[in-house]
Amino acid sequence: xxxxxxxxxxxxxxxxxxxxxxxxxxxxxxxxxxxxxxxxxxxxxxxxxxxxxxxxxxxxxxxxxxxxxxxxxxxxxxxxxxxxxxxxxxxxxxxxxxxxxxxxxxxxxxxxxxxxxxxxxxxxxxxxxxxxxxxxxxxxxxxxxxxxxxxxxxxxxxxxxxxxxxxxxxxxxxxxxxxxxxxxxxxxxxxxxxxxxxxxxxxxxxxxxxxxxxxxxxxxxxxxxxxxxxxxxxxxxxxxxxxxxxxxxxxxxxxxxxxxxxxxxxxxxxxxxxxxxxxxxxxxxxxxxxxxxxxxxxxxxxxxxxxxxxxxxxxxxxxxxxxxxxxxxxxxxxxxxxxxxxxxxxxxxxxxxxxxxxxxxxxxxxxxxxxxxxxxxxxxxxxxxxxxxxxxxxxxxxxxxxxxxxxxxxxxx
Length: 413
Hints:
Layout: H1 2-35, H2 39-42, H3 63-68, E1 97-99, E2 106-108, H4 110-113, H5 146-151, H6 173-178, E3 196-202, E4 210-214, E5 226-229, E6 234-235, E7 240-243, E8 246-254, E9 257-260, E10 263-266, E11 269-274, E12 280-284, E13 295-300, E14 307-310, E15 315-320, E16 324-334, E17 339-343, E18 364-365
Antiparallel strand pairs: 1-2, 3-13, 4-5, 5-6, 7-8, 8-11, 9-10, 11-12, 13-14, 15-16, 16-17, 17-18
């Protein structure tokens, strides 16, 4: 006891030292274990799927057989009336359908296969003419054979090669292959009207738009106001502008500012009067001006962004020196269906084939266009797979390198 009393302070320090050393060993052990943690220690176990993969050929999915075994006794399902043998009227059975290009309603595919008319709209937008041919259901699954790709020096391993346009005629390789034209000859292509799609039909928007008034140099004097337009033009009161092939004089301007969501917006108005006519028009800053008569606005996929504005009876041309030029005339358009019917301007009066192209297809342009969106031309990605060296087709001196006007197929000069 005397020893403890005499050295208790040293014993306490010794105990604290032992505790400190033990703590250090414990910390080092924790650090060591932390360094040994691997990625798989942190992974959460994968949950087992809560569904089971079913075999579509399993008898449990055979609807006709199942119906035969029920008390409904639908032993011989089928058409109930003569004339619709190609599609069933029993709702439990499906039949092939397509979307009418005129009224956009779903109809039995048989109406197109039999080249009849839509049961809903009677092909009114096509002047009642029967469908020329049914859409090709398997066209999107078509692949260009490898030997043909190699003939045109195309890379079969490029997944997008069928969507390129190697001859520059505005049609993809796959579309020309389906249409049986030469994808390497810009003069051998489908009818150029296939490149068109309808943007607007009716009172179409005009390209000129009034954007506002600059009053910097004359706050209170309208004669000093600068009138600005979206095409970069500027004008003044008393000046003239062209709208829908008519000339208008700017009679006066009314300066207005509106508060929209806490921000000031120029809402000024121009008052126009037709030169040599009685037509009066108001142009509000930022708002679209519509045509004065029904027109159709078309877009050529070979020139995206460029609009072709036409009226009934008007003639226009497509193409260039590379592809050759084709002329068309607007026969009619349907503002409700948003479609435009073209005709051959050189056809004789009353020719029943005037609205058909050389392939016998009625030249009806819709908002979807003749070419499926999945078959349109795609831009080639630069440096896609490191294959564009000097000896490759896309490289310098290659058959369709930048600057080359057309592709020369083997043996074609």
